[in-house]
């Protein structure tokens, strides 16, 4: 799994084990069309996770900003993960207002599918 970079957005990949990897989102995603680069990358992540029966952990705590277009890309990704039953955990900063508001909308997926978890992480919790 390779890292991702486009404009000010960077996603670092950490293999936690053979069946678990972490994507750390950093920087900013302010593009009007972030899906042009981001959707093919996330599709490849999902394919690799499905093929290796891996769990995906997405961490947004270090992300400075993303716009509603990026939220739409994330929603598509989560829907696709639900469709192929790949477990995804999304973590965000509970202390950052825009993150809390943005990710509350994604928490509905946690209720709809047992493979999806969307949860805040406090600043005092280990990453």
Output the CATH class name: Alpha Beta
Q: Which regions are unreliable across 5 or more consecutive residues at pLDDT < 50?
A: none
CATH topology: Transcription Regulator spoIIAA
Count the domains.
1
Rg from Cα:
13 Å
Sheet/helix structural class: alpha/beta
The rough form would be described as globular
Average pLDDT works out at 93
The helix count comes to 4
N- and C-termini, Cα separation: 20 Å
What is the name of the CATH superfamily? Answer: STAS domain
Describe the largest sheet. Answer: 7 strands, mixed
Number of strands: 7
Beta percentage is 25-35%
Question: Helix and strand string, N-terminal first?
Answer: EEEHEEHEHHE
- What oligomeric state is this? single chain
Helical proportion?
A: 25-40%
CATH architectural category: 2-Layer Sandwich
Please describe what this structure looks like.
With 127 residues, this protein is an alpha/beta fold. The chain has a single domain, classed as STAS domain (Transcription Regulator spoIIAA), CATH 3.30.750.24. The chain is built from four helices and seven strands; from the N terminus they run E-E-E-H-E-E-H-E-H-H-E. It has helices at 35-52, 68-84, 97-104, 108-112, and strands at residues 4-6, 9-17, 20-29, 55-59, 63-66, 88-93, 116-121. Strands 1, 2, 3, 4, 5, 6 and 7 form a seven-stranded mixed β-sheet that branches. Helix 1 (35-52) links the parallel strand 3 (20-29) and strand 4 (55-59).
